[in-house]
Each structure stands twice: as structure tokens, then as C-alpha cells.
Amino acid sequence: MSLGHAWTVARNEAAAILDNPVRTARYLPFAVVCLLVFTAARPAYAYRPFDGTDADVAEAHLFELEFSPLSYARFAQERSLIVPQVTLNYGTGSGFEFVLEGQGVMLMHPEPEGVSPRLEEAAFSLKKVLRAGVLQEKKGPSIATEESVLIPSRGQLHAGFGIGLIVSQPLSAARTMLHLNAELARTQEQLTERVVTMILEGPEEWPVRPVGELSWAREGDEDAVRALLAGIVWQTRQGLAMDAAVKTTDAGDEHALELRAGFTWKMQVHKGE
Length: 273
Description:
There is one protein chain. 13% of the residues lie in helices and 54% in strands. The protein is built from two helices and 13 strands, in the order H-H-E-E-E-E-E-E-E-E-E-E-E-E-E. The relative contact order is 0.19. The protein is mainly β. It is globular and about 55 Å long. Strands 1, 2, 3, 4, 5, 6, 7, 8, 9, 10, 11, 12 and 13 form a 13-stranded antiparallel sheet that branches.
């Protein structure tokens, strides 16, 4: 699917939601909450709306909130709302960061069994900078690792675990930042999953910068899943950034679409001596 086609599909999906008055009224409160949070938030640095990450961690005693109050996803004939998606980051100093994340998924046409809403993709991670580089205001690439525990949900009986390597390097000619992620995981279904992502970010000096992400993933013997994400990050003020993106996914004959929007906010929770 081309990028232009992806945006056309995204526009049509959004219009379908808004054309249904009952559905629009049902989810309008979430949009209002989103607007209020945007206007009240204090300074932060954003790293949404990607699936991958960068080779940096939160500074010591800083709390970061990555929050999406409402996103939309379509997979085959199933349509759902992600209400909300939350990632909490806390920097301990010495190049470490703790991460807790998860999302609530609500089917727009609930099944008779009543499985909606449900918790998905819950995980606890520890991120560590192995090599201080450009993201730590030093020369050369930044390199980090992230170890994760995947929390069981939706009746899963086992926890999973994963380990990832992240490399961040500027592309000086285009003033663009490149982040490469490679992850190996054992899922809650006890399957081996391999994930590779590449993130490109526009020049940091731009208040509104384009961003993109290419990813490849394979779980067990299933077909490989390829995805393209394109969006923008808007630095509304020092520290506070808002984002919006569309993601298309192809897995054999199956296709998925996601519309994402959110913000990142950080605050000092404790000042050292």
C-alpha cells in the first residue's frame, strides 16, 4: 500500500466514524479530555508515536508520560478503539530508565461474550544506555539495550520476555535522526518473535517535523508482518510535544490500519542535591 493510498484510507475511515452521530457522541468525551490535557500539560520531550524507540533514557528523577487518550484501529472486519494507550517512564540516573506500558482495547462492535474492553500489550521494561553518543550530547552513535517482561492478559497463562538493541545515529547530510531497533522475544503464547524497526525523524529545529517508521516482525512460523508509519510531531512548547500518525500493516492477505494521536509530557518529581 502506498503512502498516498494510506492517507486516503485513513481519511475515509475517520469520515465513517464522524458520519455516525451515535458513535460520534459516544466518543466525544474522550476528545474533550484530550484537548484539556493538551492545554494544561507542562514541559516534556516526546517520543511518540512509534512502535520502536531511541537509544536514550529519561534523566535522573524525571517522570515521563506518553499518552494517547483515543486511537482507532481496523483489522480485517474488526474495528476497535484504543482507550487509552499509556507509557510511563522514570529515569533513575546512571543511564537507567524504568518503563511500564499498556493499552485498553474496546471493540466498536462488541462480541456477544462481552470481551470488550480488554488490556493488551502490557509490559515492564528496563532500558540501559551502553554507549553515550549523540543523544547524550557526545560524539558518535548512541547505543542502548531494553529488557522487557510481557505481562499476561486476555486469559494468557504465561509471561513473556524480550531483549532489544537500539542504535541512534544522525544523518548529517539531511539533518535527520535514524534509530535502528532489533528485538528478540518469547511471547505469552510461548512463541519466538523477531522484530526489526527503522525510525527516521526530521530536523529537531523544526517546530513541526515529519517522522516515519518501517518495521518487520515475525512470530513463530506465521507470515512476516510489514508495517509503515507516517506522521508528524509538533513541539508546541519547550518540553511538550503532540503527535499524529497513520500506520498501515500487511501480513500476507491481511491488512490493518491505525490512526494514532497523543502527546508526551515530563516533569521533575525529585531534585537531587
